[in-house]
Amino acid sequence: MIRLTPPACLLALAVTTAAAPCAAAQPAYPGGPVRMLSGSPPGAPSDIIARSLAEQLAASFGQTFTVENRPGAGLNLAPGEMLRARPDGHVLLVGADTVVTVNPLVYKKLSFDARRDMVPVSMVATFNQVLVCHPGVKVDRASQLVELAGKKRLTYASGGNGTPGHLAGAMFLRATGADIQHVAYRGPGPALTDVLGGQVDCGWLAGPTVLPHIKTGKLTALAVSTAIRSPSLPEVPTLAQATGVDGLDATFKQYVWVHKDTPPASIAVLQEAVARAMKHPAIIARLTELDMVTAGTPSAEAAAMLRADTARWEPIVRSLDLQLD
């Protein structure tokens, strides 16, 4: 277990015989079991990351790290629960950036302010969305899909309004001018089922969700949302390449957050441990297999990324005129 003794406390002990402990001293972190909350169901990207991290952090600290899933309510249940807990770093949130970049714009009745009340410990991974279509649509390129949309009614599925898939789809439609109807599902699982079954023509869904079905030919991949091609799908163009519009980038990120009142020393200890964990070969292999790229940034860098992504998504979100509560 890691214990930090501030220099000021060492000095105080050197010059006084007072029995009272130094007021600046912080208890070792973690001082007990840690709960990691995920707003997604088991098997979703944030859940996979949380469980991979929990295993490594438990080994690092010699404490119990448990993952608890709180799906529903647009990913807002988990942050709400974290923010109601004592702000000592023993309840963490692992989730997608949209909790901060998008949800405050589309949920007006929340009991918390994610941008104000949460501090990112680290950005731990990036993930993409993939434009996939049922083979029956008979398109191999995004340009063919845009052309076909001018001739007949087409639909695309996402895991719900305001989700990464919806946002990537909106960016694609904005760039191409295509008219493709969005169909919002309650989660990526039902959306995937209906694209596979041909009830919906296409979908913008996370790489881990669709990758196995692309490999078996059950889905045709037309574009990845990131600025660089996916190592798992090197033959599939990026969003910018597929549309011919330079600079398009719908990369999404996974973060670890704590309450803003968590002691800075505890955040620093946790961030260092998270960064080490994200370099572990087992985590890298697991996330690479699922088309995610590991990171492990410092807290300040993670906060800067969130500000930049908020500015990038806000115009698109406002153009969708979403009100989800």
Q: Give the amount of beta strand, in percent.
A: 15-25%
CATH architecture assignment of the largest domain: 3-Layer(aba) Sandwich
Major sheet: 6 strands, mixed
Any low-confidence stretches, pLDDT <50, length ≥5?
1-24
What's the CATH superfamily of the largest domain, by name? Bordetella uptake gene, domain 1
State the total count of DSSP E strands: 11
Along the chain, the helix and strand elements come as: HEHEHEHHHEEHEHEHEHEHEHHEH
Major sheet strand order: 2-1-3-10-4-11
Ends distance = 44 Å
CATH topology of the largest domain: D-Maltodextrin-Binding Protein, domain 2
- What would you call the shape? globular
**Fraction of helical residues:** 40-55%
Number of domains: 2
Class based on secondary structure composition and strand pairing = alpha/beta
> Rounded to an integer, what's the Rg over CA atoms?
22 Å
Q: Can you walk through the features of this model?
A:
InterPro entries: BUG, Bug_dom1. Belongs to the UPF0065 (bug) family. It holds the Pfam family TctC. Residues 1-19 form the signal peptide. This is Tripartite-type tricarboxylate transporter receptor subunit TctC. The structure is a single chain. The protein is an alpha/beta fold and 325 residues long. The chain has two domains: 33-127 and 252-320, D-Maltodextrin-Binding Protein, domain 2 (3-Layer(aba) Sandwich); 129-243, Periplasmic binding protein-like II (D-Maltodextrin-Binding Protein, domain 2, 3-Layer(aba) Sandwich). The chain is built from 14 helices and eleven strands. The protein has helices spanning 7-15, 45-61, 77-84, 98-101, 103-106, 114-117, 142-149, 164-176, 188-197, 207-215, 239-243, 264-277, 281-289, 299-320; strands at residues 34-38, 65-69, 91-96, 118-127, 129-133, 155-158, 181-184, 202-206, 220-224, 252-259, 293-294. The chain has a six-stranded mixed sheet, sandwiched between helices. A five-stranded mixed sheet has the order 7-6-8-5-9. Strand 1, helix 2 (45-61) and strand 2 (65-69) form a beta-alpha-beta unit. Helix 2 runs antiparallel to helix 13 (281-289). The protein starts with 6 loop residues before the first helix and ends in a 5-residue tail after the last helix.
